[in-house]
Amino acid sequence: MNFETLGPNVTNSYIFKGSEQTPFLAPRGVFVANNHLFVSDTGRNRVFIWKQLPTSEYQEPDIVLGQSNISETGRNSGGLVSENTLHYPSGIWSDGRVLIVGDAWNHRVLIWHTLPTKNGQAADVVVGQPDFRSNQPNVKGIGNTPSAQTLNWPYGVFSDGNHLWIADTGNRRILFYEDIPKTNYKAADKVIGKPDFTTRDYENHEPIWPYSVKVNANKQMVVADTQFYRNLIWNNAEDAFSKPADVIVGQANFDACGQNQFGLFPSSKSLNWTYDACFYKDGLLVNDTGNSRILWFETLPKDNNAEATAVIGKRDFKTGSENKETLHGTSSSLYWPFSISTQGNKLIIADTGNHRLVITDLKF
């Protein structure tokens, strides 16, 4: 990788490709907690845990979940769905003790209430399905009405250590649980983006295709609303149950839905297939996935369509994914980064299109 393509706002950059035996394939989820690194190796249907943040290009994981060993990569481990398997895992969260994984294509969320200690360890709890042997969307299959207990492509998960938020992407909503569930098939306590638990149709002021959700210590919430190329911010997460977002990043109003605001090129205000965001210090990092860049807002935007302060991954705000640097390959720079996580001033990027992580230090 040409690390100069990341720009002047980061330093000490290196790439990490996971296990040298079977490296990452399109990793979509990354999270860091207590110096532990958690990666959803989405294309190979597994989750990796490293007990220390790796510092070299390859390092064998301490734990692999979803497969019995490092060499296995099949959907649901090549068999039927169970408490030990995964199918297209995406969102991931941990505090170094509890682990929560969005097992997206099994239409469920898996919870380990103590950090796994062995390969293929069974999950303790399943959310979104009545048992570990079920994996249909909304339990009964495509077209079934959602409920407070069901899920459909849950790509994003987040917790503050007490509550749980699930981006129930396929049902176009976010489910909220007062406590991290300890029993299977737990019903959500509240819903964000819908008037009730059975509605799937949407209005433009609601999350249309919520892919990730994050809440900071100040109780501010950001949702990556992929289909409308925007991020939605609530100044108080409690307000999300009863009112539209306070601020839109990437669009001027709730009805605007243009990819790069219908421009030929990106700008300091536009987004293209945004899949994640991350609070950092007093500001916000936004994964502008389709433009293969990360936007930095030095302070949390207070008005719609705010201009980003800086860009990571491109030489300027007007350069997107398709340019001369990527004409004959993408590995020289970021390509379709799906998720990000921070620890201190360190930024970990799931550089999904290049099948690797990029780890770097922020200079902000």
TrEMBL record:
What InterPro entries does the database record attribute to this sequence? 6-blade_b-propeller_TolB-like, TRIM-NHL_E3_ligases
PANTHER family attached to this UniProt entry: E3 UBIQUITIN-PROTEIN LIGASE NHLRC1-RELATED, PROTEIN LIN-41
Can you name this protein?
A: NHL repeat-containing protein
Q: Which organism is it from?
A: Zobellia uliginosa
